[in-house]
Amino acid sequence: xxxxxxxxxxxxxxxxxxxxxxxxxxxxxxxxxxxxxxxxxxxxxxxxxxxxxxxxxxxxxxxxxxxxxxxxxxxxxxxxxxxxxxxxxxxxxxxxxxxxxxxxxxxxxxxxxxxxxxxxxxxxxxxxxxxxxxxxxxxxxxxxxxxxxxxxxxxxxxxxxxxxxxxxxxxxxxxxxxxxxxxxxxxxxxxxxxxxxxxxxxxxxxxxxxxxxxxxxxxxxxxxxxxxxxxxxxxxxxxxxxxxxxxxxxxxxxxxxxxxx
Length: 261
What we know:
single chain, alpha/beta, Rossmann fold, nucleotide-binding, Sugar ABC transporter ATP-binding protein, ATP hydrolysis activity
């Protein structure tokens, strides 16, 4: 069983193609409990495909996936959820006409006999929000339609944390948010890791990456250009890894980078 600092997810030599297009090439990727791993790359680098392979939406062509130290086959989103993998996509998948509790338990409602166990679900929602130190929502019975963008993102992240998840993947969580709401969400991302989750943060925003990430994995045209501690690189180096696959002595070998184009 993985503990804080141990890799909870490890991808080894992952490959994925769609027809003649080789989208992911021999990808090695790991994320540890208690860590925020920023996954960065230009459009078309393979970030979305990689996440969908982890989430069980796309089957891998070759390579190995290990979770909690053992090889696993993730043949669908239910299998991913059963392992403890939750993904918060950009569209958040929240129902505006339902309240926070109903959204957090949507599709996984608790029951007492034939009726919903509203008291148990409300208490679990309150407890999860409290554990993540969320103070930006007035009531767990607020309808999602009445929430701001930052509050909606908070609810989506708390929903992912509710299910005793070990790995939470966040796809551009601060996109289209204002400064104050971005601050709230980044604080929540950090608390998510500090409460023992492994977090993958997909972002184009270098300010966000350098504020909350512990490590950075840069993808360049389907290959991992670098997996480095955030403290060991500059923003300029990360941008070069994203755009050219290489920065000084860091990144893909010149020939490999050229072959990826």
